[in-house]
Write a structure and sequence with these properties.
Two copies of one chain form a homodimer. Chain A is α/β, with parallel strands linked by helices. Helices cover about 65% and strands about 5% of the residues of chain A. Chains A and B meet through helix 19, helix 20, helix 21, helix 23 and strand 4 of A and helix 19, helix 20, helix 21, helix 23 and strand 4 of B.
Chain lengths: ~650, ~650
């Protein structure tokens, strides 16, 4: 028997593609170059705004052009952190070739609660990655087309919607699609850095950016940077190394030997990221780029490096386009990571269970939707402003880095594999360095917005732990003696109540079904709201050949039908030895609007009766098949497509 | 057994007062003076803006001070219409002493469809009455306190909310409360007119209003008014006579002999209304009041009449306060009329049946809420601007006047009571005059906004007729052979399906209940989404002492559980001779948020199965009683107040 599909399913299939079967779940294997493109877009793309944020932090302190003296040293410090991180994650990749995310590593080595801290911290940072990347992508766009600036929020939301839709359809981490923007960005950045280098070494050097009045104002002031300012600028640069963990999450996607290939790719990625970050910071210093509303640093650098010629202009546009695409792609990385991490936590009963459910296209749809909504809210609240988002960013990632490296250190001590001493040294160093960076970020950015995350993460950890308690309590209660409970004898009595509103075919159906049940006691009950109607009904009932089934009238002067039924049922079930079945005739309408013409008393009664143990509510359906004359043609069409006509008799 | 009440009921009782029992439905009898206050606030209050609208229409045409020459003649024309209406309604009161609204009269004499036109037209006008009166009341307020002007919309919405709340509580049309503002307004208006008259006859005459620049601009221009302009101004004044029908709606509330007292009150009301309308128009002409944003005509007139002395100022404030209160009270009249009329139409199956339902306090709550929302939307869309609302107003009322008077004329011809010839003359004159006014209003205000109503009313009539067809079709189908259907034998087979997700106490409960039903075939079915879980479940099931009940596995590779159950049930029920009961274990949680932790598959299955005839869905409840440790104290409190603990076993 082939049943027609309903409307919402057909709509879903149109938007998302046909349903995928569970056995279609599979993973692509990627070669190292493609894997680099797939897993590194988040990390590499952060160079698009990291140097800018360092400069911005320094300039805001009002030390004028002196600020540019600190940019390269601070970048070097962050590249050192990056190097330590890369070597640390080499260890993780080898130890956890199946899935080496911070959550798994922390849970395995430090316990369930620290793992929740890592998990929650990472989830908040994934949300921020989406908001930051998309906002920075829009900034790349409006740096070229200034007219777009007022529409940055809707454009950012559109990007989020498109990425979410793609992920709900189940975008395969298909290498080629991802490779293009990532390699284009690499080409754009290295060509820019190369041209800048050549001009400096062999030419007349780079000219400074032509500043507008606002930028001139930003350069006012003079002085030297204090330690706190330098640390703050360093913390702002921390955004550059987020995303480094992506490869360790994706080891199973590499070709065999997976862990070796993943390690090599990690090293290449680290090298590229470090070189680009340094190169861009150096260029920005050379041209004295002053970030301002509507013009990113990358855009100013590209402008200054390429000059005003036709080829220069083409290269400028290419640079901006590549930057925009890789940033949007970076948001996509979070759409792969967030739902997966949330499903891990949910499987451990530390997140709502719905997050473990694979949707129409085998992806964790609920996680995707949750991420999209959260990121969209952030974008709206902070008006797609990267500088406002950055202070919230990176605290979470560095917290998870610290926990993950500490977990690895513990593991070395515990397992003592060959070479564990050097492994311990690397991971312990990683843990200490990332802990220091976490503290620096939290301290220097606290008043700029990081406090939100610092307050939010512990609250969320409390919530997920609370939630876990609830799941565990439920599970314990539901499974206690369950095997014995299955054998329990049936209750002594079975009473069936049919609620009668009027004598019609729905009542007839309910009575027919009631008799099928062979109860100990069958009662027809009318809840009397309207005395006149009740009297008429009683008269009509008397004419029916149902001598064995008298109609019981239950006065309901306060017109609270649900309450009246509840009282009746509670009385019957009060002895704990009576199974009460309440049959509610329910009309099934052909068109949705027909339903609107009637109130939802049946549903309300069912909800109210849920309070009584042993009160079983049964909806006995009656299918209305006829259409009113006026809409005959329409209704027939509706029936043909609504998917319900096939099983109406 | 005393069952505790649930939270929503207790909240409702706090906000609305205790539940009223149906037999507490009663009507107050009013003496003529109080009845005047209760039923006339709508009609009398319209003098607060009617003269203003006439002046505004004339001034907008740019004929300058010449405009004031037309105000009194136009007012006289409208007072003549009023006189005809009053005499017409004298007839109606006598003929329909129980309820003489336009809907009843039209239905009785012209048929059901014309009655729907009258009904729909009146309902739209009741909505407008609320919007107009409340907006005009707020205008009276901001004429005194100019700072309030920017907040006029929220204030108007607050008034609507308060009136709606009062009506949901079931404000008795309690005379004293209503009498105060009505009589205060009468006093205010007649004192103002009296002082104006005395100053004109015995003093130096009234001085012109001191105009601001905006008002000076409005007086620019010169010329005479053309016929269309005069008719347009006349149409704008039509707002004054809306509400005249209220007394005929309320005849049963008078003391015996009801119809005589009602008639006398109608005459008094007509006299007062006519005199006030004329007086205010005359005063406005004398002082050359120019309505402007933030200053109503009444406010300018009162200002000019009373001058700047201390007593004058007190009288001015009193006038404004009385005006505001009677206007808000006028909105209250619609809250009595709209739900009653809607319930009449719903009883005739021309409106959604929910409108016939008396709520917590015996009022037609759904009608009250519908009116409040509609009026609030209008106020927001038109920004509480009386001048923008007025063009939409009065078309509906005059349409219903015409139908009602035509119905009365027809009645005289049909019944030929004593004196029917003079009655026919009066009502026929009334029908013709109101028809002419209707056409004038529709024509002159068409482009100013009346087109909305002229387009909307026929659409609404089509909708209610369509809706009636649907009700009638349903009723015919449901009652066809219903008495015979009640005797139909039960179906040949009864299959029971228990859906098993895991072996726990909810499944145990469902199996226990299933055995109670003594079915022909009892099947335990697991819809297998996760192969591993399914295999584990199968192994566990094998250990149960349920040899007679094997667990059937139904693979569901597309993870669409509802669909899978639907297919299973549709196959079983396909012969039309099998009653299928699907038992769905349902956990009943202690706290609302516990429910959020689980998806709503049970409800989704029930919804999907509604498509299959003879598929009866039973929810077998299992009550979770334990709380998780973390929230123990909170939960116990919750249980104690939630009203569910009393019947948990």
């Amino acid at each position: 028997m082939v049943l027609p599909e309903n409307r919402s399913f057909r709509l879903k299939s149109k938007v998302l593609g046909r349903t995928l079967h569970t056995d279609q779940l599979q993973h692509e294997r990627l070669n190292n170059a493609t894997a680099l493109a797939v897993f590194s877009s988040d990390a590499l793309s952060s160079t698009a705004y990291a140097s800018e944020e360092i400069i911005l932090t320094l300039l805001t302190a009002g030390i004028g052009v002196a600020a540019f003296g600190y940019v390269v040293p601070i970048t070097i410090a962050m590249v050192i952190v990056l190097t330590i991180l890369v070597f640390s994650y080499r260890q993780t990749i080898k130890a956890y070739p199946s899935a080496g995310g911070a959550y798994i590593v922390t849970k395995d080595n430090l316990g369930v609660i620290p793992a929740q801290v890592a998990g929650v911290a990472l989830l908040t940072d994934y949300i921020l990655t989406v908001s930051v990347s998309v906002s920075a992508g829009v900034a790349a766009l409006y740096s070229v087309f200034h007219g777009v600036y007022p529409y940055r929020v809707p454009i950012a939301l559109a990007f989020i919607a498109i990425i979410a839709w793609g992920n709900l359809r189940g975008v395969k981490e298909s290498g080629k699609l991802f490779a293009i923007p990532t390699f284009a960005f690499l080409v754009a950045m290295f060509v820019m850095i190369g041209v800048g280098l050549i001009k400096t070494i062999f030419g007349s050097g780079l000219e400074h950016v032509v500043l507008n009045p606002e930028q001139h104002d930003a350069l006012k002031g003079a002085g030297a940077a204090g330690l706190v300012l330098i640390l703050h600028a360093f913390a702002s640069g921390g955004a550059a190394v987020t995303g480094v963990e992506a490869i360790s999450n994706g080891v199973p996607a590499f070709k065999a030997p997976e862990w070796k290939n993943a390690r090599n790719t990690l090293m290449v990625m680290g090298g590229l990221l470090g070189a680009m970050f340094l190169g861009i910071s150096w260029l920005a210093t050379q041209v004295q780029a002053v970030p301002t509303e509507g013009r990113t640093v990358i855009s100013q650098v590209a402008d200054a490096v390429y000059g005003n010629g036709a080829i220069g202009h083409v290269m400028y546009i290419f640079t901006q386009a590549a930057t925009m695409f890789i940033l949007v792609l970076a948001a996509n990385t979070s759409f792969a990571d967030f739902p997966r991490l949330a499903s891990f936590q949910a499987e451990d009963s530390f997140m709502p269970r719905q997050l473990t459910k694979r949707g129409h296209r085998l992806v964790f749809s609920n996680g995707i939707v949750a991420l999209a909504i959260s990121a969209a809210v952030l974008v709206v609240v902070l008006q797609a402003d990267v500088s406002k988002l950055i202070p919230l960013y990176a605290v979470g990632v560095f917290t998870s880095f610290t926990l993950s490296q500490a977990g690895m250190a513990r593991r070395h001590v515990r397992i003592k594999e060959a070479g564990w001493r050097s492994g311990l040294f690397i991971n312990a160093l990683g843990a200490v360095v990332t802990l220091v960076v976490t503290v620096v970020i939290a301290y220097t950015k606290f008043t700029h917005g990081a406090w939100v995350i610092i307050v939010l993460v512990p609250i969320l950890v409390w919530v997920v732990v609370r939630l876990n308690h609830q799941y565990e309590t439920e599970k314990a209660e539901l499974h206690e003696d369950a095997f014995r409970a299955v054998e329990e004898p049936i209750l002594r009595r079975h009473d069936v109540i049919v609620l009668i509103d009027t004598i019609d075919r729905t009542s007839a159906r309910a009575i027919q079904y009631a008799r099928t049940l062979i109860p100990d006691d069958l009662r027809a009950v009318h809840i009397a709201i309207d005395e006149q109607h009740a009297a008429e009904l009683a008269d009509e009932w008397a004419t029916l050949p149902l001598a064995s089934l008298p109609l019981e009238m239950r006065l309901c002067p306060d017109r609270r039908i649900e309450r009246s039924v509840l009282e009746l049922v509670a009385e019957l079930a009060d002895d704990g030895q009576t199974e009460v079945s309440v049959l509610i005739p329910r009309r099934v309408y052909r068109a949705g609007w027909h339903k609107l013409l009637h109130d939802r008393t049946a549903e309300a009664i069912a909800r109210t009766l849920a309070d009584v143990p042993h009160a079983n509510v049964t909806f006995v359906p009656y299918h209305l098949t006829r259409s009113s004359k006026g809409a005959h043609v329409h209704e027939v069409e509706h029936g043909a497509v609504s998917g319900t006509s096939g099983i109406h008799n």
